[in-house]
Each structure stands twice: as C-alpha cells, then as structure tokens.
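Why does residue order matter? Because the sequence determines the fold. Keep that principle in mind as you read this record.
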Amino acid sequence: GTVYEWHTLEPLQNVILEVNSTPPQRFVAKEGTYEFELERGQYCIKSRYYENNELLYYSEENVSIETDGDFIIDIIMFPNIDLNEKFFEDFDINLSINEDLLEGIEGDREEELPIWGIIAIIIIPLILLYLLKFRRGSKEEGKKPTEVLPDDLKEIVNILRRHGGRMTQLELRKELNYSEAKVSLMLADLENRGLIERFRRGRGNIIILKKT
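Structure:
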C-alpha cells in the first residue's frame, strides 16, 4: 500500500511501519510505499513518522486476512495526538498567562482609577472657581468704579456729586447718619480706591471727588 499525509494526501516518505506478526516485521517506506507478507489472521499495522527526532504523525490500522491473495491497504498518517495535547497544553498555559497579565493590567487600572478620580475631584472645582472668578472679574472690570461700591460708600459719592464734587468733611458728616469715626473710615476707603482726594485745611479736611 501507500502511506499518505493527512492534509495534502501526498505520499509520505520515510515512514516506519511495524506489524505484529510472528516474528514482528518492520518496514521503512522510503518512497512512501510498503509491503508485508502475512498469513491468515488478525494484525495491527502501526505507522510512525518522525521529524527532528520527534513523532509527528502516527497511525494504527487493524487488518483481517481471511483468504490468500494480494491486498492493497493505503494508510493515512494523522498528527500525533500526544503532540497535539502538548501543543494545546502550551497554548492553555500561554492563554492563562495572557489572561493573568490582562487581569493584572486591569487591576492596575482599577487601582489607578480612584487616584485619577481624586485628582479630578480636586482640579475640576478649582477650574470652575477660577472661571467663575474670571468671569465675575471681567464683569466688574467693565463697570464704573462707583458701580461696584457698597451702598454706604455710594451714598457719600452721590452727596459729593450733588455739591459739585467738593465739600468739607464736616459738611459731609452732617448729611450722613454715621459717627465721625465711621465717616473717616469710609473716606479712607474711597481714597484708597482712588475716587476722592482729601486735603488738610485748617482744623478740617476738604473732600474732592475725582472724575469717574
């Protein structure tokens, strides 16, 4: 018969065949063909193909000879099952290693996630606060200085305007319902804001409203 490779169906050379006759017979199919001389009976033909000293293909054929004659029994060589099991074991090991690696990476990401979450919780409010302050500052910059004053300071500015932008501190105090100390503090505030100027004259002060 002829020995064929399972996926190409081409004759496979250098296959070692062995039959359990008495005595056992062994044949090397150098050209991919073989032959045995057997009597009537039940036999098992084992075929092995080695590559780099490793069993690559293996086959077992049970043969029953009941009459005399010449018989052709072709053999198809299939991959060695033990080799395939080893391959899949290695594949499973590699797969498990990759899964462990992925789990480790995902675990690291899960551990890092709270850190990024904390950073986001800290940074986002700061950004919002900055934008709110910037927006508020922009609005205030667009206003006139007197528009952002507290009501008590606006009252002083309005009184000065009614008097032509000039009056003594004593005259101003008479039109306000505040103590002398309170009036002095409010005038100092307006002076620091650059809205008024105070000049000493005798025992009192003259208040001049700057153009706003």
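Strands lie at 3-5, 15-19, 25-29, 41-51, 54-65, 75-79, 166-168, 196-201, 204-209.
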